Structure formats: structure tokens, C-alpha cells
């Protein structure tokens, strides 16, 4: 993708985002009404952090389409992301998408009417699905959005619900940059009582097993936004950066260089992850956690 061509669509996006985000009003970001307004205003697709392109290696490694086909895949807080349609194109079937925002779901339903997948308005912190309904759950940015609004209780509820609706041995692909993700996942388990075995034998204690933790490449859009943001004065607004052609050109060049570097590092990390997976090792979760809580926009 040519980064210079991103300026147009992103300007529109930033305009929709700008005022709220730049006021640092993180606390209200999670609120349904604000998401509704955002998705009503925003046309087209936008992906937080990364697209399927940057994540496909992890999907292929841990839950290739052939292993998921009949088990069902849940996308939690799908927003207007291209991930679900890309997953479908990659061969994943039986996809269910939920989001608390009805404008988001309505628009996605319209846009992807031809694809056989479900789009449901549903609160991820209290899902209406039966327990053990899905083989794979995917969250990209929703848990982080809840945490950036300092609502740990909501984020905890989301983790508990994901655990409840996942089948035993199911996979939760969580794309997050929050340092609190692992403690949250672990504490979500404490609300599930360990059943007593009828024959008195030991029952395995429920646990999230972290299969992989690595830094994933950001999408070109997310990279450009990050570079632009780094060039803004303290109270600067992202939307203004998009109105400055010189700044945009400079940021595009830097973003291109950063993407090249990230691609190289990512290839090396994937190689290491494959080796560890083959050796049956778990990654050292704590060592790689990012202590910095960063905002989403
Ligand atoms: C940061 S956006 C991420 C969107 C999308 N997953 C992506 O990667 O681009 C967070 C999304 O979570 C949704 N969301 C927030 N709270 C939610 C909740 N309680 N239940 C379901 N979705 C929620 C928002 O409407 C929004 O679409």
C-alpha cells in the first residue's frame, strides 16, 4: 500500500475522531453513544492496530482455518474493521461478529451482506450466547478501549464472558497493547468454580495458557497515525496534522522506513515463536508486558 495515498481517507477518519480524542476524554470513549456517533459519521472500513495482513501468521500458526471450520469464530467488538471479511476470505467459516454499537453493526451488515456471517448488536460484557459456543474468539482493541476508559470491571467482565463462551481448549486471539491484559485474563478465571470430580480425582484448574506474546507489526494506517502523533505539539490535534502537506510527506517517509524495520523484526519474532511452539514452550509473558498504558487514539 502506498502510504501517501492514505492521507485522504485518514483525514476523514481523523476529523471524526479528532475533537473527542484530542481532548483526552478517554473516560467516556467506551460509552456506547460515542461509539454510535463515531460509526454513524465514519464511512468505509478502519482497523485499529493491525489488519489481517499483519496478523495472519499468528492465525495460521495457532488456529488455521481447517481447525476452526465447524467450531465457530467470534469477533468481539468488530467495529468497522476489515478483519472479519479478511478472515472469511482466508478460509474461516461460521463467523459471528458482535459490537455494542448498532450503527457499526448495521453498516457492516449492509456492506458484507453477501458474506455468510452473523452481525449482532451485543454487549461483550454480558453476551447472550450459551457457554462453550465458539472454538475461537478474537478481540482487537475492544479490551484496550475498555481499559483506556479506566473501567477495569468492564474489561474483567469481557474476559469472563470470552472464557465462558469459549469451548474447552478454545483459542482467544487478543490483540492488545495493554500491560494489564494478563492479570485481567488470569483474574477472570477466579470467578469460575472448579467442579469437583465425581470419582474424587483431581480436576484440572481452569487456566489461560499464553501460547504466544510478541509485538505485531502495526498496519500502515496505524503507523502513519503514530508517526504523525509523535510530531504534534503537546496539545496538537491529529486532524491538524492531516492539513499540513509538508508534515504529512515527512511522516509518510518515516512511516515507510518504520514499516520496513518492523517487517524485518516481525519475521525474526515469528521464527522464534515457531521454534518455541515446536518445542512446546510458553513465552515469558511477564517479561514482555508493556507497563505503559497507552491511549487508543
Ligand atoms: C477500538 S475499537 C476496535 C474495533 C475493531 N475491533 C478494530 O480492530 O478496528 C473498540 C470497539 O469495541 C466496541 N465496544 C466497546 N464496548 C463494547 C462492549 N461492551 N461490547 C461490545 N463492543 C464494544 C466499540 O463499539 C468499538 O467498535
UniProtKB/TrEMBL annotation:
Record key words, sorted: Methyltransferase, Transferase
Pfam family, one: Methyltransf_11
GO molecular function terms listed in the Swiss-Prot or TrEMBL record: S-adenosylmethionine-dependent methyltransferase activity
InterPro entries documented for this protein: Lys/N-term_MeTrsfase_sf (IPR051419), Methyltransf_11 (IPR013216), SAM-dependent_MTases_sf (IPR029063)
GO biological process terms held by the UniProt record: methylation
Methyltransferase type domain mapped to chain residues: 74-174
Family note: Belongs to the methyltransferase superfamily.
Official protein name in the record: Methyltransferase type 11 domain-containing protein
